[in-house]
Amino acid sequence: MTTLCRVLAVSGSTRAGSTNPAMLATAQAIAPEGAVAEVYDGLRSLPHFDPDEDRDPLPDAVADLRGRLREADAVLFCTPEYAGALPGSFKNLLDWAVGSDAMDGKLVARINVSSSITGAAGAHESLRTVLGYLGTRIVEEACVHLPVPRDAIGADGLIGDEAIRERGARR
């Protein structure tokens, strides 16, 4: 099998049992033939963004992040909303990406799994703004709001609800 697309899946959540990483792990598990999804798990290890540190040699975690972004054909984001915007740790990840060309022209999409009344609209509008600064190409047809309740996550950390999986897979 020839790999057609390497997707880096990035969650904006650090919470255990969050629906965001569960969605990305599920996307990885059901990736179509020809696509390989890798879930980025280094969010917690990134240092706080400091423009004075954005030079060679980069902190190891930042060099790893940028390398993975460069190697990916596309990036899939799934982030919660915190206080009406992006969570700080996730914004920090994006700030480290701004200082490089790792995302310039990169295909990106997002899955919004919020089941809150606001649908995490503030976070996803903020994400759209930052992605513009990064020079990405947002694939609108691949962006979806797919509410996922916490009880849809199985003991294996995946979303087992077939209706949710099918709605996500149609994108």
TrEMBL record:
Pfam families: FMN_red. One of its GO terms (cellular component) is cytosol. Residues 6-145 form the NADPH-dependent FMN reductase-like domain. Gene3D superfamilies: 3.40.50.360. GO terms for molecular function: FMN binding; oxidoreductase activity. InterPro entries: Flavoprotein-like_sf, FMN_Rdtase-like_dom, NAD(P)H-dep_reductase. PANTHER family: CHROMATE REDUCTASE (PTHR30543), NAD(P)H-DEPENDENT FMN REDUCTASE LOT6 (PTHR30543:SF21). This is NADPH-dependent FMN reductase. The lineage of its organism: Bacteria, Bacillati, Actinomycetota, Actinomycetes, Pseudonocardiales.
